[in-house]
Q: What sequence folds into this?
């Protein structure tokens, strides 16, 4: 770069007086000129003598009484081998006069207009931008970009902008460090610094850096690094003071890179802990004699080497933080990210924080039944939820419980964040298990295995509670994991095949006890006998077939008719979206299978399940069926409370001692089949359709 003090002058330019160092016979960093092309014809032919930029050098030869002048061209070699050089921007030209055998011309103008005579010179071209400190022996050159350095007292062990030195030479064997000496007494070796690397090849710019030991002497010190290239010796002066570069306070570093307070380190645990990358957090404070107190608001569960709450000193502290292997998720709660804030505080009140973020991924499954029926080939489904991508890595089906097409489809199933429905079809009359293994290809969660247990006959999956009126809708618990409705809730009453919900409170019936009827049913309900129910006497509502789901084909296979107020109340609630999943009334055969699977009652050989409670009269107070009945029958993992019932005139009986649960199977043209519970256990009976019973739905 041209110095700002320079002035622009049209040629010829004259340099004399103080521009010439008469002691060293040099003119260094004095002449700055514009670019000049010394060729013509597309750079193939040298310009004429008078059109080329050149130097005219003047001096007194030997004992001459008058000065002589000599022309020096920008060129290399002589005679037929002479090659002229253009003057280019950002280039340095060093012209060494190597021989003057005689007098020159009388004036500068004659010398310019004449060819060179009685002078030999070499022209060294250097295009190393910024490397303008040149040392030459007349034949070779050593160039550096800086020859003086000043450092603070701290040790310097790695390359940075402040300690980098670029070195170049054209000497045949390159350059090397000759010695490290004390700057004030060069007979003493300076062992507290070195140059890395200490050698370099010819014609290559070598980027080196200066390493320093910490200055604990209490006084400033200086040294010289002597570079050697043939006969050339170039000293690099290095001074190290006693002041600290670290200002009072705390600094944070990620490895060797300084980070700001509040910086966040992110970690992603994987199932293979060896895949996790460690991160190095370094804390440095000044004054280094002060104690530092560390406070941590939370410990991330899968991080090793993370800071803990403590107090220490020493000026610096380093943590190598990495992740451990992820834990299994499976059929539990989807994991969430964990965050921690670590605060470092010095005695004098300086503070810095760093945040730790532990990313947690997983996959969970829901609504997987304990067993699936295969009496006929049927499609089932369950859901998986994840916060990352996944696929079914393998399907193991040694017993052939899945159809071939279903197994093939599952093996190519993939998903992303969110909830996905997994569908599968069982083979008819098959028995055994199939296992679906869900994986993440990056190992972000442990593999999750879902086992499907298939048998020809399986107890139906009953809901976790009776139907109640809650939050402006008819609803129920969908299973043990759904706590929205208590398992012992009394429930509301329905006539067989009715969509009208009746309160369980009040010993006699009044129209005010109607909790819900479909909006489409506009007929007024003024008495018990005006409540709509399925009183049809045609097939399938006129027989005693316990395996029959009478409502499966009702009203064009919908199972209900809102405008008449009739149908399967479970199908109706499912269609309204008031519960998750697809539900229906159980068949009488499903109720029987469920009872038999629960085993005989210890209270009576003709009944099933285990009675719990005193089975004493209970006065309900919650009109919506939310009272918890203390007495119930335990059937497998389900509780069936003695909810009471309403007889054919609407009178309330049996609360706390007896309860009935409608099925979806008729017992005759006027009766419906039901399951009942009492202090003896659970059994089945045939009941008049206008009776008011509670309803326990099954998953379709």
A:
């Amino acid at each position: 770069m041209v110095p700002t003090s320079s002035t622009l002058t049209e040629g010829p330019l004259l340099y004399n007086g103080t521009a010439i160092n008469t002691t060293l016979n040099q003119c260094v960093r004095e002449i700055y000129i514009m670019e000049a092309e010394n060729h013509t014809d597309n750079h193939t032919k040298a310009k004429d003598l008078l059109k080329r930029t050149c130097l005219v050098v003047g001096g007194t030869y030997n004992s001459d009484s008058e000065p002589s002048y000599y022309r020096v061209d920008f060129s290399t070699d002589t005679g037929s081998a002479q090659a002229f050089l253009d003057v280019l921007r950002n280039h340095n030209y060093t012209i060494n006069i190597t021989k003057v055998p005689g007098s020159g011309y009388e004036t500068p103008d004659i010398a310019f207009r004449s060819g060179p005579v009685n002078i030999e010179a070499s022209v060294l071209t250097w295009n190393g931008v910024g490397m303008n400190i040149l040392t030459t022996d007349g034949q070779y050159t050593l160039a550096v970009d800086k020859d003086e350095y000043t450092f603070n007292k701290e040790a310097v062990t790695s390359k940075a902008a402040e300690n980098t030195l670029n070195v170049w030479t054209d000497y045949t064997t390159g350059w090397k460090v000759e010695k490290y000496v004390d700057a004030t007494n060069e007979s003493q070796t300076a062992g507290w610094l070195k140059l890395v690397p200490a050698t370099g090849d010819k014609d290559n710019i070598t980027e080196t850096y200066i390493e320093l030991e910490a200055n604990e002497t209490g006084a400033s010190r200086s040294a010289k690094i002597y570079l050697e290239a043939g006969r050339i010796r170039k000293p690099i002066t290095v001074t190290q003071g006693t002041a600290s570069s670290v200002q009072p306070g705390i600094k944070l570093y990620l490895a060797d890179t300084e980070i700001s307070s509040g910086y966040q380190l992110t970690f992603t645990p994987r199932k293979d802990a060896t895949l996790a990358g460690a991160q190095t957090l370094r804390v440095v404070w000044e004054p280094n004699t002060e104690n530092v107190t560390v406070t941590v608001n939370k410990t991330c569960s899968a991080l090793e080497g993370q800071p803990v709450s403590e107090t220490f000193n020493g000026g610096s502290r380093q943590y190598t933080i990495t992740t451990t292997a992820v834990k299994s998720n499976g059929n539990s709660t989807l994991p969430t990210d964990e965050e921690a804030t670590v605060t470092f505080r010095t005695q004098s009140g300086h503070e810095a924080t760093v945040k730790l973020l532990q990313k947690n991924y997983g996959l969970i499954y829901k609504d997987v039944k304990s067993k699936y029926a295969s009496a006929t080939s049927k499609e089932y489904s369950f859901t998986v939820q994840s916060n990352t991508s996944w696929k079914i890595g393998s399907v193991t089906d040694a017993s052939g419980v899945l159809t071939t097409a279903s197994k093939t489809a599952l093996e190519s199933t993939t998903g992303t964040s969110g909830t996905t429905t997994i569908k599968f079809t069982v083979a008819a009359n098959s028995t055994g298990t199939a296992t679906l293994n869900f994986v993440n290809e990056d190992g972000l969660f442990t593999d999750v295995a879902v086992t499907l247990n298939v048998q020809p006959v399986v107890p139906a999956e009953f809901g976790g509670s009776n139907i109640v009126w809650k939050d402006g809708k008819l609803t129920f618990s969908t299973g043990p994991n759904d706590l929205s409705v208590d398992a012992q809730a009394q429930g509301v009453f329905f006539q067989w095949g009715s969509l009208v919900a009746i309160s369980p409170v009040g010993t006699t019936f009044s129209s005010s006890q109607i909790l819900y009827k479909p909006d489409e049913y506009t007929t007024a309900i003024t008495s018990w006998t005006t409540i709509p129910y399925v009183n049809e006497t045609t097939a399938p509502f006129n027989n005693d077939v316990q395996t029959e789901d009478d409502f499966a084909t009702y009203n064009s296979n919908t199972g209900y008719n809102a405008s008449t107020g009739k149908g399967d109340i479970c199908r109706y609630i499912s269609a309204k979206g008031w519960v998750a999943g697809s539900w229906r009334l159980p068949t009488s055969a499903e109720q029987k299978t469920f009872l038999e699977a629960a085993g005989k009652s210890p209270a009576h050989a003709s009944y099933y399940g285990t009675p719990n409670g005193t089975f004493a009269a209970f006065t309900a107070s919650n009109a919506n069926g939310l009272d918890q009945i203390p007495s119930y029958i335990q059937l497998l993992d389900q509780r069936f409370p003695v909810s009471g019932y309403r007889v054919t005139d609407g009178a309330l009986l049996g609360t706390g001692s007896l309860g009935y649960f409608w099925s979806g199977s008729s017992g005759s043209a006027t009766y419906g089949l039901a399951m009942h519970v009492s202090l003896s256990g659970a059994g089945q009976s045939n009941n008049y359709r206008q009776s008011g019973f509670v309803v326990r739905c099954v998953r379709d």
Summary: The chain has a mean pLDDT of 92. DSSP finds five helices and 52 strands in the chain. The radius of gyration is 48 Å.
